[in-house]
Amino acid sequence: MNPSNDGRGAAAAVTEPRGLRLDPAVRAELDALYADYAAALDEARYEDWIDLFADDCRYTLQPRENFDRGLPLATLAFESKGMLRDRIYGITRTLFHAPYYQRHVIGPLRVRGAGIADGVEWLDVEAAYAVFRTRVHEPSEVFNVGRYIDRVLRDPIDGLLRFGEKRAVFDSENILNSVIHPI
Amino acid sequence: MNAPIDSATAVPDAAAGPDCSRVPFRRYTDPALHARELERIFYGRHWSYVALEAELPEPGDFKTTFVGERSVIVVRDADGSINVVENHCAHRGVRFCQQPFGRVKDFTCPYHQWNYDLRGNLQGLPFRRGVKRVEDGRTRIDGGMPADFRLEDHGLTKLAVARRNGLVFACFDHGVEPLEDYLGPQVLPWVDRIFDGRTLTLLGHSRQRIPGNWKLMQENIKDPYHPGLLHTWFVTFGLWRADQRSQMVMDAHGRHAVMISRRNEGGRSEVTQGVTSFREGMTLHDDRLLDVVPEPWWKGPTVTMITLFPSLIIQQQVNSLSTRHIVPRGPGEFDFVWTHFGFADDTPEMTRRRLRQANLFGPAGFVSADDGEVIEMSQQGFTQHPDASTVSRLGGTGVAPTDHMVTETLIRGMHAYWSKVMDA
Q1: Which positions in chain B touch A178 (Cβ < 8 Å)?
Q2: Which of residues 329-358 of B touch A (CB under 8 A)?
Q3: Which of A29, B153, B271, B373 could form a disulfide linkage to A97, CB 3.0–4.6 angstroms apart?
Q4: Contacts of residue B227, Cβ cutoff 8 Å, sequence gap at least 6
């Protein structure tokens, strides 16, 4: 992201290369990873959600205004699998909230880079997402809209792709009351 | 969870005064009352929070925000002072500044290019003296403003501005008392304890839209009763619970307050008996989420929650610091804007700690997401039965400071003041 591009009318000051064309087999694996991610959250299968992260992982949910201005505050900022577990315990056992379904729709993946570092295969992936919220007795509403900016790693043990870093940067200027479940 | 609570009904009134322990639900839902609140409270002689100076470090830096429901621009002037002007053009009413933040030399409304300086003075406008044109060999002047049109009569609406150690407040009514008098000698030292003149650093913003009346947010942070009951993290980890040394401070009018407490070790005790949110044996998988390091300026308390009437909450919760700005949007909704900050002399580790602890607060916070949720549910209850009333009788029906937290005195204090302003 070019910080000088506020994305609200001013043209970006830089150009970017088009996304990488990947081996179709790897792209299919990536597509499956994101589909599994969305399904795990939408079906509240949180153990499965945690298992989509590498052992050394980061998860951030951040307002776009902070991201664009280089301000570090995030809505959620987890630096380990332990923190992901603490969040899941928090939302399932401690936080009181009006119950709701969420439904993730993730757009086509844009692969911005790929390589091997210290023997581990990595991919930098971006994707637009929209999350809809449906509360009891209420119609569905647009809840959170943004993009993922992720680092995906191939696990050297089982060979599966997992998130080393997942960053959800949301355009939504206001959170509709509260975010309980992960995005 | 009845045991520690029922006995409170026997507590005598803490002080003589009007009974503000029952508030009709319609006080939170009635559009006419809301309009009167805007006039008398938000646009009357009350200071409203508009910014941290750290948001506007350089001359020309501005932000747009709200006083009540009116959009205003907060801007740093060339001489370092801060001006607050209403965000609508004097000409056709256009809310001309649409950016949340930025840097400018002056303001120009795009519609007809009326141009204002950073103090809101009208500097010029196109075709003021008409348009000169030669027709059939004769020079003529078409149109223009009347001869008696004076630029100084058509500036932006200017608000009174008060600054204190990095906090910026504004008021539409220039007859408002000085900020220090407004806050009062009981509350001011607690504001100064956090804002003691150190340079602040801006960590970022969080915004949430909560479908509830704005007063409910003030009441939530004037309510020491709920944190150890609603919030598992507070009761389990001893961040806020009824067996702690604490103090409820209010100003002489009952409009501002501070809830002060000291963390204890948590765990099982009398105050956890029957409390369904208590989780004995709960531990964190990654305890960096609660890696509290005491700071010298705390001078004891680990938590101070300051409510400044009508629109600001200042939070110190262990190492996490924020201002929370309440922006009303009709009787049934408000925006809640969090500005997290630290200090210029923070180590990188302290900055990281403040950011980690921000996981507890904000729209997704372990101990604050459910506040927004219960406020929404209160509003739902109010809306369905406007003739019913709340009951806030913990600690009696009077209004007075206390040296414990088993009381709703601060809520009663705010409503006593509210009645005075609204009925005057």
Answers
A1: 208, 363-364, 369-370, 372-373
A2: 335, 340, 351, 355-356, 358
A3: B373
A4: B234, B235, B239, B240, B241, B367
State the Cα–Cα distance between residues A178 and B379, nearest whole angstrom.
16
B366 shares contact with chain A (CB less than 8 Å): yes
Sign (positive or negative) of CA dihedral B196, B201, B203, B206:
positive
User: What distance lies between CA B312 and its chain's CA centroid?
Assistant: 2
Interface size, chain A vs chain B, as Cβ–Cβ contacts under 8 Å: 124
Contact A89 B233 (CB under 8 A): no
Contact criterion met (CB < 8 Å) for B207 and A63: yes
**Token pair listed for A28:** 């299919």
Following DSSP, what letter does each residue of B210-262 receive, concatenated?
A: ESS-HHHHHHHTT-TTSHHHH-HHHHHTTSS-TTS-EEEEE-TTSSSEEEEE-
Distance CA B256, CA B38 (A): 18
Q: What counts of helices (H) and strands (E) characterise chain A?
A: 4, 8
Tokens of B417: 């003041």
How far is CA B52 from each of CA B59, B300, B325, rounded to the nearest angstrom? 15, 25, 11
pLDDT at A4 over 60: no
CATH of A24-170, one of 3.20.20.140, 3.30.420.40, 3.10.450.50, 1.10.760.10: 3.10.450.50
Q: Is A13 helix (H, G, I), strand (E, B) or coil?
A: coil
Cα separation of B259 and B321, whole Å? 15
> What mean pLDDT is predicted for residues B375-397?
94
Evaluate if residue B11 carries a pLDDT over 70.
no
Residues of chain B with Cβ-Cβ distance to A77 below 8 Å are 355-356, 358-359
Flag if A175 and B363 touch (Cβ within 8 Å).
Answer: yes
- How far apart are the C-alpha atoms of A54 and B56, rounded to whole Å? 40
Per-residue pLDDT at B124: 95
CA B300/CA A154 separation, integer angstroms: 49
B325-368, pLDDT tens digit by residue? 999 999 999 999 999 999 999 999 999 999 999 999 999 998 88
Residue B153, C-beta contacts closer than 8 angstroms, at least 6 positions apart: none
Residue of A nearest to B372 (CA): A177
Whether A95 has its CB under 8 Å from any CB of chain B: the answer is yes
Burial zone of B140 (CB within 10 Å; 0-12 exposed, 13-18 middle, 19+ buried): exposed
Q: Does A142 touch chain B (CB under 8 A)?
A: no
Q: Is the pLDDT of residue B369 over 80?
A: yes
- Contact status, residue A11 vs residue A5, Cβ threshold 8 Å: yes
Residues of B in contact with A69 (CB under 8 A): 101, 204
SS3 state of residue A90: helix
Please tell me the distance from the alpha carbon of residue B352 to that of residue B303, in angstroms, as a whole number: 19
| Residue in chain A lying closest to B359 (CA) | A76
Q: Where are the domains of chain A?
A: 24-170
B94-98, B124-128, B165-169, B273-277 — which is least confidently predicted? Answer: B273-277
